[in-house]
Amino acid sequence: MMDLRDLRRIHPYLWEIPAGYREDMRIPCRIFASKEMLEEIVKDRSLEQLVNVSALPGMQKAAYVMPDVHEGYGFPIGGVAAAAWPDGVISPGGIGYDINCGVRLLKTELSHQELQPHLRRLGERLYMAVPSGVGKSGFIKLSKEHLDKVLEKGVPWLADMGYGGEEDIDCIESRGCLENGDPSAVSSHAKGRGIDQLGTLGAGNHFVEIDRITHIYDQETASAFGLFEGQVVIQIHTGSRGLGHQVATDHIKVLLGAMRKYGITVPDRELACAPLTSPEGKEYAGAMAAAANFAWANRQAITFFIRKTWHEVLGDQGGHLSLLYDVAHNIAKVEEHRGEDGVRRKMAVHRKGATRAFGPGHPEVTPRYRNFGQPVIIPGSMGTASYVLAGTESSMELAFGSCCHGAGRQMSRHAAKRAVRGERVRDDLHQQGIQVYSGSMAGLAEEAPMAYKDVDAVVDVVEAAGIAKKVAKLRPILVIKG
Amino acid sequence: MQRYRYLEHTADVRMLVEGSELPSLFSAALEGLNGILRKDSGTLPRQPEEEARVELEAVDETALLVDFLSEVLALSSIRRAVFFQVEFSTLDGRSLYATLHGKRVDGFDEEVKAVTYHEAEVKLTGEGDYRTVIVFDI
Q1: Which residue of A has its CA nearest to B58?
Q2: Where is average pLDDT lowest: A53-57, A337-341, A413-417, B37-41?
Q3: I want to staple A446 with a disulfide (CB 3.0 to 4.6 A). Which of A413, A442, B82, B86 is the partner?
């Protein structure tokens, strides 16, 4: 366990582990947290893992963790680090097994009151339309050739097939496609695990959730985002399913074997990495991008089925479901940032359980939001609030344009199941006016709100630290869990 | 001797595996993985409906065990089967040749994303048994 005395306080919500803390550190580590949060964070191995990250070749400026941090594999969950491009490394451990796990938010034209009479029927129909649970197949039957198209071209290809439009593409991080997506770098095992999973949620913490906006913090930005108090919105949280999991597994194995060739040693096998320019590094980057494209396409396919169901239940009075934004929180991308010397240069930014939060004016933010900053979607746990935030200019300087990704787990799955039964969680949520549809009562217990940190406190720290600003607060009214 | 038990982990499943020899260690780990995928894996009828050949090379026993479990996980997911039996024709510290026998199932209880190298380290205990922790990303 790290001693709090080893940390230096930069400001009330930013702490530093100096580069001299351990001999092999190349850069300092910085932690966004309140003092109370920090006292909890040091209890697991998150910060030791962050120190390990700071020892990777070519790391720039500082390695960061967000206030929703917890222990992961290789990188801690909630970690952000950038490797010099092209001389640094790429590490699957900095991205995670669920490549491009992320969240998108759909805006409806209805208020909570208008939807209320239809809610039960809508929930039942949505539960059928979006397959959830372990290893469930989707309704889209992809041929091998079409799977390769998804891996190479992501959402734009799926939109061409009739599952979306330009309006959607414009509101997805990287427009729903990383151009270096390479289907040939994705193994037959990975393709076999993913081919029938497009349009499926999966299990664990993935969900579709209908929320209502209970508070607007920034009216001007909310208007630009098309959000208003009382509005019903829909969140989709899922990733690249078995395909992405297998891509990570396959390439960690390859990179573990390749490191010796490049003279790289790492303190944890889960930090296996290779130079960005090496054949192994490029191959992983191509496979990771392909899996990311699959994940964006997955969230797009789910959007298609939600829109279809919405229209079937509500007819024309339901209006259109438009996309606010789609953010990735497990991904690596080449971006331009300032180094410690203040000079702008390209870097391979790894975000694992952290969200891109580019500020106003950034060319990668779609023109419709460019004056306000990129929308950032922060889902809470089932019974608690979620937030829409906007990226800030200071986030670009403080954390490579990044912020938190959720509440962050604090209780083990076993402990949660020991503490509460799924039926109790469902009934408690029902009493709060939240309908829950889930195939697994044990799964509900594992995801009980008490298993997570306080999302309000996490978002308060993010705003106080200046890495994103609050735009709107959401409360759940209906949850579909895997 | 071969045995496994599940330990505490904040987000995922952590398992302690022991075996008096490498084959029993690997068999115990397979049993442990199956127990996560299907709670009833121990009582499923042992009908050999699926067969798969596994051939692996790795830098050491630890990587070999993780790679073996990863391979079984992928095959289980793709073929929708629980592989209840493994026959090793070769199993040393660096290579594994084996045949898996499994029963098809209608689904799984838990979605195991991956078998990780996190905390995994096959070691010999004072009693001469092999032991390691395996963490599954759930």
Answers
A1: A257
A2: A413-417
A3: A413
Q: Is the pLDDT of residue A133 over 90?
A: no
In order along chain B (138 residues), what is the average pLDDT of each group of 10 residues?
Answer: 83 89 96 95 90 95 97 96 96 96 93 93 95 94
Closest CA to B67 of B38, B97, B110: B97
Instruction: Report how many domains make up chain A.
Output: 1
DSSP 3-state assignment of A91?
A: coil
Residue of B54, B118, B132, B136 to mutate when probing chain A, most A C-beta within 10 A? B118
A98 CB near a chain B CB, below 8 Å? yes
How far is residue A281's CA from residue A272's CA, in Å, rounded to a whole number?
A: 11
Range of the domain at A16: 4-410+452-481
Residue B13 to residue A413, Cβ atoms within 8 A: yes
List, as one string, the DSSP characters of B79-99: HTEEEEEEEEEEESSSEEEEE
- Give the one of B67, B77, B137 whose C-beta lies nearest to A97's C-beta: B137
Going along chain B from its start, the domains and CATH numbers come out as 2-137 (3.55.10.10)
Q: Locate the chain A residue with the closest alpha carbon to B9.
A: A412
* Residue A412 touches chain B, beta carbons under 8 Å: yes
- Greater confidence (A410 vs A6) lies with A6
